[in-house]
Write a structure and sequence with these properties.
The protein has about 280 residues and is an all-alpha fold. The chain is built from 15 helices and two strands. It binds geranylgeranyl diphosphate (GRG). The site of geranylgeranyl diphosphate has 17 residues, from helix 4, helix 8, helix 9 and helix 10.
């Protein structure tokens, strides 16, 4: 199967799982469930659940029973987007080609939608797995020393490559790494495979953000489905602004090679991890 077909078919499975497992829009109070469904079901690449699927598959697991806990990663990711778009943070009105959640439902419901998605994610994880260690892996990735810490460091700004790497490793790479690890842990992978998965996740996590920085300057809002050119407009510290476009691309390519080498260590009769890493580094949106 080509990587495009692989991503498309798992994206459809994740979408189906999200739709079937999220509370129905009719559940009272209706507005919060409508908003949760609006935020989650409005597109998105679903790359975090697909990374968990690919990792678990490479480690020999049967994916069907794991689709709900893997889809919980998308709830966490969507919560971060909904909150990041709020007026107090990025104040954005475009996401996934549509109006942001707070623009449609109001700021109070926007805040509560993020809270509800984060909580719902841990309900799914706790209800559909018995592996507390795996749940901890996800929680730690997004705590104040993880994704939230990265967001705070981003707000504080900075001027050095060290500060930039701190922001990206925490804000973006930790949830991506935890996604890969969740796949390995729920597949009961042995320690050497988990170590390779962690290195793979860290490499693609950072590469993902470098590519995101490059897309922000190279694409239009229409192509990205979110406001383009924001980094420059806000004077943000990014890879291209700090080291230039050519060096940023080179760094992403080095990280891709590191990811591919670690993907190969895992083996597996079906292993799409290297191709997903390539997709992340070559994506156009
Ligand atoms: C909890 C407020 C809060 C923030 C945490 C993750 C984050 C920090 C903020 C979200 C905005 C942002 C720029 C995140 C960096 C990671 C990133 C590039 C997200 C976009 O992810 P994609 O490309 O989006 O996977 P889709 O729409 O495809 O799901």
């Amino acid at each position: 199967m080509t990587i495009d077909a692989y991503l498309k078919s798992w994206r459809a499975e994740v979408d189906r799982t999200l739709d079937a497992t999220l509370p129905p829009a009719s559940a009272p109070p209706k507005v919060i469930h409508e908003a949760m469904r609006y935020a989650v079901l409005g597109g998105g690449k679903r790359i975090r659940p697909i990374l968990a699927i690919a990792a678990a598959e490479a480690c020999g697991a049967d994916i069907e029973a794991l689709l709900v806990p893997f889809s919980a990663l998308e709830l966490i990711h969507t919560y971060s987007l909904v909150h990041d778009d709020l007026p107090a943070l990025d104040n954005d009105d475009l996401r996934r080609g549509r109006k942001t959640t707070h623009v449609v439902f109001g700021e109070a419901i926007g805040i509560l939608t993020g809270d509800a998605l984060l909580t719902e994610a841990f309900v799914w994880l706790a209800r559909w797995t018995t592996n507390v260690r795996a749940i901890e892996e996800v929680a730690v990735a997004i705590d104040s020393k993880g994704m939230i810490g990265g967001q705070v460091a981003d707000l504080e700004g900075g001027s050095t490559l060290e500060q930039l790497e701190f922001i990206h490793r925490n804000k973006t790479a930790k949830l991506i790494t935890a996604s890969v690890m969740l796949g390995g842990l729920l597949a009961d992978a042995p320690a050497p495979a988990l170590e390779a998965l962690r290195r793979y996740g860290q490499a693609i996590g950072l590469a993902f953000q470098i590519v995101d920085d490059l897309l922000d300057i190279g694409k239009t809002s229409e192509e990205l489905g979110k406001t383009a050119g924001k980094d420059v407009a806000q004077g943000k510290l990014t890879y291209p602004s700090l080291i230039g476009v050519t060096a940023a691309r080179k760094r992403a390519d080095e990280l891709l090679q590191e990811a591919v080498a670690n993907a190969a260590k895992i083996g597996g009769s079906v292993n799409y991890l290297a191709e997903i890493a390539r997709y992340i580094c070559e994506r156009q949106s």
